[in-house]
Design a protein that fits this description.
This protein folds into two domains: about 100 residues, Aspartate Aminotransferase, domain 1; about 240 residues, Aspartate Aminotransferase, domain 2 (3-Layer(aba) Sandwich). It has 13 helices and 15 strands. The strands form four sheets. A seven-stranded mixed β-sheet has the order 2-10-9-8-5-3-4, sandwiched between helices. The longest helix has 22 residues.
Length: about 350
């Protein structure tokens, strides 16, 4: 029996979206694929209200951490770290042999423009990285305010935003955020199977990458976008079946509208926050809670592992705390295909199991 997923990815996928992957195969160098892929790029541009360069890669979102390091870091990156996934970006840049400093914040705290500007004064940085929605802590940092402030003072710094667990649920506009790269993946608020990642990339980022050696091939921004400019296709073999599903899902998302999806996600988030503050307390600092995943402090010392065993018997699953936060927190995702009725139901079951 399928367990309904209230976890921050993979998320629930509608049957009609899944069935798009059953379409007959086409060659990725055929005109039919060009039509499919250019249509996807056009829909993504409409959804995010941007004319920036867009690509869809067959990879997890994590690949964009390597892309950031290998294409943009010429001097040194400053990585804002306030959770496990923002720390992964910092570690990835180092793993790629590039220099990076960590702006370490207390987990549960959001990044603020003034703190970042002060840190940027301390070094010769050419890249700034931020997890707009830190999946491990449920913290939503004001990426638009940060981007505006940073680009005003440091216009040449490349601003890279990890939106893996928020894009498609939160209302994110890359142009207003002043991002050079905003990236995300298919299995979270986009409510698709895992396997695709999307990068929205500025002209400036692509041009800077041309001067950076050691970009690799699969991870080279010029290789990706030069090939698209010439052929309107991916330079390497894509997951064609998932592209069908993405194209179909984007039609559904555009019909709901970005604003409509945001309002639905926000309504679910508010339901969980109210419930959490009644029985426990929220982990993020007030005012900076995610709209796609709520991280809740386990103030009652309940066993989250045992809760999930009981929920599994009722065909549901939530997430334990991530890493060092395991059992200290638990996470309820409210993203993708989920509705307020779904959230009301899972909260009722948690109350029933834990006798709250």
């Amino acid at each position: 029996m399928h367990k309904r997923l209230f976890i921050p990815g993979p998320t629930e996928v509608s049957h009609d979206v899944l069935m798009q992957q059953a379409k007959p195969m086409i060659g990725h160098r055929m005109a039919e694929y060009t039509e499919l892929y250019t249509g996807i790029i056009d829909k993504l541009g409409k959804y995010f209200k941007t004319d920036k360069n867009i690509t869809v890669l067959t990879s997890s979102g994590t690949l964009w951490m390597d892309i950031t390091a290998r294409n943009l870091v010429g001097k040194k990156a400053l990585s804002v770290v306030n959770g496990a996934f923002s720390k992964r970006m910092f570690q990835t840049i180092r793993d790629c042999g590039k220099e990076a400093d960590m702006l370490s914040l207390e987990w549960g705290k959001a990044a603020k423009p003034e703190v970042i500007l002060k840190a940027l004064e301390q070094g010769d940085y050419d890249v700034l990285t931020l997890a707009q929605n830190e999946t491990s802590t449920g913290v939503r940092s004001p990426a638009d305010e940060i981007g505006k402030a940073v680009k005003k003072e440091y216009p040449d710094i490349m601003y890279v935003v990890d939106a893996v667990s928020s894009a498609g649920g939160d209302l994110l506009l890359p142009d207003e955020m002043h991002t050079d790269i905003m990236f995300f993946s298919s299995q979270k608020a986009f409510a698709l199977p895992p396997g695709l990642s999307v990068g929205i990339v500025s002209d400036e980022a692509i041009e800077k990458a041309r001067s950076i050696p050691g970009r690799g091939h699969y991870t080279s921004l010029p290789a990706i976008f030069d090939y698209y400019a010439k052929k309107k296709q991916n330079p390497a073999t894509p997951n064609v079946s998932l592209m069908y599903a993405l194209s179909y899902q984007l039609d559904r998302m555009l019909k709901e509208t970005p604003e409509g999806r945001y309002e639905r996600h926000l309504e679910m988030a508010k339901m969980v926050r109210e419930w959490a503050n009644k029985h426990f307390e929220m982990f993020p600092e007030p005012g900076y809670e995610s709209v796609t995943v709520s991280t809740i402090r386990n103030t009652q010392g309940k066993s989250v592992a045992e809760l999930n065993k009981a929920l599994a018997e009722r065909n549901m699953a939530i997430s334990n705390g991530y890493g060092d936060l395991k059992e200290k927190t638990f996470r309820i995702a409210h993203m993708g295909e989920l509705t307020p009725a779904d959230i009301k139901e899972v909260l009722w079951h948690i109350e029933d199991i834990w006798e709250l």
